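Hello forum,

I keep getting stuck at the same step: I have a sequence, I want structure tokens, and every attempt I make locally crashes halfway through. Rather than fight my setup again tonight, could one of you with a working pipeline run this one for me? It's a single chain of 246 residues.
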Amino acid sequence: MVASIPIEASRQPTFDVVNLCVKRQHDEILKSISFSAAPGELIGLLGPSGSGKSTLMRALLGVQAITSGSVQVLQSPPGSPSLRGQIGYMAQNSAIYVDLTVEENLRYFAGVLHQPSSEVTRVAGVVALTSFSNRLVSSLSGGERTRVSLGIALLGSPPVMILDEPTVGLDPMLRRDLWRTFEDLTATGATVMVSSHVLDEAARCARLLLLRNGSILFDNSPAQLLSVAGCTSYDSAFERLIEEVK
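Reply #2:
Ran it on my machine without issues. Output:
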């Protein structure tokens, strides 16, 4: 495993995870994971199904019981009242109301978060949904629903974004547009963690966390991954790293 990218001493970490372990019954889902993340980082959380990606994100959100170790988000324990409105989360399964319009969904969640109506207009523009505002969510395509979910996560411009496989099932153009949005968010100082099982998306991230069987297999830049593995494709690089740790 390659050493984690250090954070400048003057910058407070967004995430600070130390020896995090999660067990369910007798199964060890996360095995002593440690890493820190800085403001403005675009982090790809990659790995095959069952590697522990969703469990790690749940731990960061404060909805996963941990067995040992510690987790801090913005210098507070996950789930703390001080973190309300500070984390934008987008789940794999859409958490939007299909019997409401796009605008009604955004207005409802803006109300829950005590955000002004101007936020509805802003995020609709960010995720390119302004022309769909009056359409029922039930009439939207899968990609359009994904953008509604992302818009909800963006309400209030939270400094932390945790996105669980937001590009799954989308066509290449939509995937490209979403990644550009993620890059724009980090340019404002937000920390964005995007989980994916599509290793070719790795090149779009500034930093990669590769998980396998509950452990961090690699933590560094995409270029460093290819260099360490001596490969020209991310799929091949990941496969070579797996072989080396068997």
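The first helix runs from residue 53 to 61. If your local run keeps crashing, start a new thread with the error log.
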